[in-house]
What we know:
Mean pLDDT: 76
Structural class: alpha+beta
Shape: rod-shaped
Strand content: 15-25%
Distance between the termini: 164 Å
Order of helices and strands: HHHEEEEEEEE
Largest sheet: 5 strands, antiparallel
Amino acid sequence: MRAHRPSPAMIVALTALVFAMAGPALGADIGHIAKLITGKQIKKGTITSSHIKDRSLLLADFKASERAKLVGQAGTNGAAGPAGAKGDPGAAGTAGVAGAPGSAGVAGAPGTPGAPGAAGSARAYATVDALSVYATGIDHRGVVNVTHPLTGKYCVTLDPSIYAPAASAVVTPVYAFAAEGTHLYWNGGDGSCPANSLVVRAFVAVSALNGSPVAEAAHDIGFTILVP
């Protein structure tokens, strides 16, 4: 007699019948067998992505080196990773080339004149030229007249509010009107000048022809006088 090979459909039907007859006991044994399966019983390279449930793996399921890669990838492509430690300051850059000088600015408008200053403390002052005339444009105060009775002699008459015999004065040459080597002296009057006048004497230094020491000769000299 020829052997009869069962059809696939017959095999499936017989398998289902066996499981049905075995009942829950067989199912429990199969579950118990599944619990006994470990990595040693699984052939390497047989578990692929299709055998793993999507989004079921945790970061702890990976090796430390792989976790570091995943964290770095998440920081680049996904959510921002934790900030790294602050790096050391970089070296100072080289100085840049000096720029060209800027153009001159526009001149500013003239400023507002300042307020007049307080009056000075001098009671009298004047500038006198060599001929005893007040210098043009030079202000004077407390001097009412200047006369020139002799060469190198000037009578400076003061305002009556100033008592000339008790006054002191400062006299200096004005070199625009005077020669070099000039000297000036003053006193409180000698009777030849008007009342309440100071006498100013002017001299210029000269050398004697015989080689004697330098002498002084009366000379008309421009000067400034000030009575504190």
